[in-house]
Amino acid sequence: MKKSNQSIISHMPRFFEYLDIEKGVSNKTQETYSRFLQSFIRWLEENNLENLKPHELNEEHIWKYRVFLSRRINPHNKETIKKTTRNYYLIALRALLSYFADRDIFSLPIEKVKLTRENKERNVKFLEIEQVLKLFNSIDISTRVGLRDRAIMETLFSTGLRVAEMVSLNREQIKIKEGTKILEVVIVGKGSYPRTVYFSERAVNALRSYLKTRKDKEKPLFIRYKGPKGPSKRLTPRSVESIVKKYAKMAGIPTTTTPHTLRHTYATDLLAQGVDLRIIQEFLGHRNIATTQVYTHITSQKLRDIHQRFHSGKDMEK
Description:
- The chain is mainly alpha-helical and 318 residues long.
- The chain has helices at residues 12-21, 27-46, 59-70, 83-102, 129-137, 144-159, 163-167, 201-211, 237-251, 259-272, 277-284, 289-292, 294-310; strands at residues 183-188, 194-199.
- Strand 1 (183-188) and strand 2 (194-199) form a beta hairpin.
- The longest helix has 20 residues, at 27-46.
- The chain is built from 13 helices and 2 strands, in the order αααααααββαααααα.
- Helices cover 51% and strands 4% of the residues.
- The protein is elongated and about 65 Å long.
- The chain has 2 domains: 9-112, Orthogonal Bundle (DNA polymerase, domain 1); 129-308, Intergrase catalytic core (hpI Integrase, Chain A), CATH 1.10.443.
- The protein starts with 11 loop residues before the first helix and ends in an 8-residue tail after the last helix.
């Protein structure tokens, strides 16, 4: 191991070259790491540590940075950032320390940057099927906007796509021929991993009706009809979140419903129907089965309720 004469900040360009060339990390992930590490860079500068070298970084620095993160305010809701979000900042920093170790540059060991422990199990919000139907039926499909929004909802629930994956779809990927009932589409998802997603007959019909209204030559599958003029009319993830929330309010279901709620509902419904967890992992594009296992907590509770209701043994009591 060798001590570097360069500051931690000076190593950043090489770090991102390392992520790109040697680790093959996607551009999206690189952008995420860059955004989170910018916070660390600003913290160094604000504390007159911009010249701090890798071997000079110590546990006291890490502790003070963690305190800084714990007091950071989310500009959207004016609250301190969540523990999960704090961990993202720390994960980016750990990736930088891993780079130093891989390059035999003396620095703080990665295990010294401990992630914030969650106080409770991840709370997965999902809808009952009756609520999903209420959501769909709240949409007025007599307008082109309504047809688009219904196609969005059906797509999210049918495929389990992440909202960012869905808004990235292009019209040319959706080839609905005469008589098409089920549609298979290969997408490149999170981490640049390809997978196949499946559109149900309901989703295909919704897309067919929506696409018949499209007289434009725009490339994106889902476009906005209002807003400022620009090079693209592609809907953004935030726009889709607003659309889902609008109809959730109209349908009288939880206003906390988001596009990701429909992804959770998709996975939960498959598991409840007896689909193998490994298959659901493939459908969702999870690289680690542990990520998919969060849904077993939900279905386990459902199974307990069913067992209690139909096989409690009360009918055997005298």
